[in-house]
Amino acid sequence: MPARVHAILVVRPEGRTPAANHLQRTLAALAAQTRPVDALTIVLCGADPALTQLAATSGAEGVITAPAGTSFAAATALATPRLTGDAVWLLAQDTAPDPDALVRLAGALELSPSLVVAAPKLVAWDERDMILSLGVSMNHYGSTVELAAGELDQGQHDGDADVLGTDVRGVLVRRDAWTSLGGLDPALGGADEGLDLGVRARLAGTLVSVVPAARVAVAGDGVAAMARGRRRARRRAFATRTAQLHRRLAYAPAPAVPLHWLSFLPLALWRTVLHLVTKMPYRVLPEWGATLLVMARVAAVARARRRIRAVRTVGWSRIAPLRVSRAEMRLRWEGDGADPDAPVRSELRFFVGGGAWTVLGALAVSAALFAPLLAWPVLGGGALVPLRANIAQLWQDAAWGARPLGLDAVGPADPFSALVALIGTLSPGDPSRAFVVLWVLALPLAVLGAWFAATRVTESSLLRITAALAWALAPTFLASLVEGRPAGVLLHLLLPWLFYAASVAHRSWAPAGAASVLLVGVLACAPSLAPAVVVLWSAALVVVALVAGRGVARVVWLLVPSIVVFAPLVWTQVRTGNVWGLLADPGVPYAGAEVPSDPLGRALLAVGFPTSDPGGWASLTGGPVWWVGLLVAPLAVLAVLSVLTPRWVTGSALIVVTAAGLATAFAAVGVAVSFDHAVAVPLWPGAGLSLAWVGVVGAAVVALDAGIVPRVSALRPIGALVVLAALLVAVAPALTAQTGNGDSGRSVVTNGPVSTLPAFVAAEGRGSTDVGTIVLDPRADGLRVDVVWGGSATLSGQSTVQSTRTTPGPGDVELAALAADLVSPSADDVVSRLAARGIGFVLLESAPAGEDDVIRGARLGAATSLDQRDLLDPVGATSRGDLWRVNAPLQPRAEMDAHQVALQRLVTFGSIGVLLVALLLAVPTAASRRVARRTPRIVGPTPGGSR
């Protein structure tokens, strides 16, 4: 047994628990040792009066004061010159040894002269049967592996004494070995100090062992412990990764050190992806911080390698058997399964519960109603225009840069353009056909999304089907289909999935990541929903913070991708003083048959109809339609009654969603922020109604689910049938509008055209967006003029920055001058100016029906002026109007300058980066699925008390 044992006790307050309480118990435990320590040195980090008083009365041979931020390794180095014994015992203020701990540790050193490090069994401070640490090893990649942690102490590991390393708390080290090994490495940052000490001792040809009979209780808030708790997870991750990378450079063969150093940055990028996929985004910043720190501390690595080189007498193969093999690691991962006693969520029952059959039925109905559309190459009418001819041009329209409309417009694309490009990419050979297929599949896709959304509200298969059908029969959805509003259709298809993911975003990073991406899509389709989204997000943040207590960061993340993606558009509109333009509907500005802002129009909005022709009944019958709104009453009554059921909390939350949607619709009706040339186009109130329909359908399902007692359960299917029958009658004309005669006016969706420009121009511009066409259209409000680049004006090429501008820019002034000179015989050099701008065609659009004689005369005068231009070759009359070709050398369209190119890259990489992060978070893993299986599908309190 060592003749003298010198204990070093490092005291530094950590955590919420006052360090004095733990220090007092530790000092009492030292005094109670059956084999007392021969000398005690206390290193006091920080100036705490209570700790100073306890240290002064402890009987220590010396008290060393140090700054509050002193690490455990640095503190032990301060006390090392005062060592007088044959062994040193490393303690912190939260390490209380059992009375026989020291005698057992010292006995182990006496029995084995080659043993230089003896470590105790660390147990919980207030639960002495719980093992916190009993030996440490590392895997093939150098990561630390606890050999026994978090297990109930039943003596199952008492026979495993030979280890690679240990936890540094409570270890007893021979003094000569402590001196020759150089003590603890301060560059480890407080992690893996015992493991590193054990590795160096093993390389010196000596032994490291645990003594299970010697127990030390630890509280985990001392200077030698890793930071505890969720709030300190980043500190813990930073220290762990710093130690791992430092050890990698210290242990590697000399020729491999530069290779390891060079691999750190790519490795940090790869591990960032892994952290996001494994739903641990809090480790991303510590990963990069630790990487950069270790790469910069070359001197610390050199010192660590010198310490190893000074004592090493055996090869690394000597410690290889003590490492944890890949097979053992695999067994550990497989053993980390779910608690068998944990609650298991119910089966989805998509097939056996009738969900799949409902989707198939909707597909059959849609095929019958929209089958003629499949013969159309392109959808037209309303806000529908063709897409680009290839995928590359689609994504070019979706990027920041030169806009496809306007003389020299350069700026951000609407996020909706990226959504259009994504859909068009699904049909790479003919992108425009993707929207034809979308129109045909819209009904079954709506049913599918709503069925899954209903799983967050009810376990009843009947009510899930009811919710799915009610969502597909929403008046605003069918109005969007009939009026040719692609943004409205896509919004209605995305909202159920957003509800499905966002309602459980606080539970796991997987739904939070998915919901954040879906929210980008929803706001891209309907920017006018942004105020309502912010209100609902704020309410969810407060509820999660007060009720759940966890998941606040996940809820905060929901808005981050949208903020980044919309930032260029927001900056552009704010800089130009057009803040209200941020609410404009994306795509082609189209007024349609929206409800007016008078009392009758607002009444229609209140019952869910966004157009002045509710459900299409006015165009079908030509008679009064006041009764159509009454057919929504069964659904509305059930929604209101949901607040009186046992699940009133969920019902109330859904009513709040309904109120937010209705408020958005009421605020949007009659408000115009975009223009079709000089015609103001009001906002589409259907976006708010789609949001309101989420709440009203969900609340009605809650009422049917929780508001009917078992003895009258027959009322549940009756109520569902009444709701669906009433909705079907209300929207029957709109649902069948596409089957009617094309001249009936019940639907504005038409076959094509494949281009908004003449076929000659479309052929020239099919493969390039550098072909410019100036379009002239004399009207009563003046000469309308625009420049179209490429073979057609496209859906992805529309820009709200241009459609909402209220003051002309330099490009607008120049374009107006060009148009005026073109139709004025006195101007001579106008065609050369067109060629200098890269404009190769001039189109005088066909006269609309009912044009008066004055405008017809202006149109004929413009045609005469154009015919007289020597450098304009007439192509002839086309279906789109009269066309001329510029017969002069064309200059290419002006390229972006260096600043604009740099800005384009920043916007592109920023948007792709944040969406990539969100998608990586959304990828399900075995761990996230395991967590999901332990939580109920239904969100909110239930009569059973689960959440």
Structural features, described:
Helix 8 (257-277) packs across helix 34 (898-922), helix 14 (415-425) crosses helix 19 (509-525) and helix 20 runs antiparallel to helix 26. Strands 1, 2, 3, 4, 5, 6, 7, 10, 11 and 12 form a 10-stranded mixed beta sheet that branches. A 5-stranded mixed beta sheet has the order 20-19-21-23-22, sandwiched between helices. Residues 337-342 have low confidence and may be disordered. The protein is of the alpha+beta class and 947 residues long. The radius of gyration is 37 Å and the shape is elongated. Helix content is 48%, strand content 12%.
| Helix content bin | 40-55%
- Rg value: 37 Å
The tally of beta strands, per DSSP, is 23
Strand content: 5-15%
Based on helices, strands and strand pairing, what is the structural class? alpha+beta
Largest sheet, described in full?
Answer: 10 strands, mixed
Q: In DSSP terms, counting alpha (H) and pi (I) runs of 4 or more, how many helices? A: 35
Distance between the termini: 59 Å
Which word captures the global form?
elongated
Low-confidence stretches: 337-342
pLDDT averaged over residues: 87
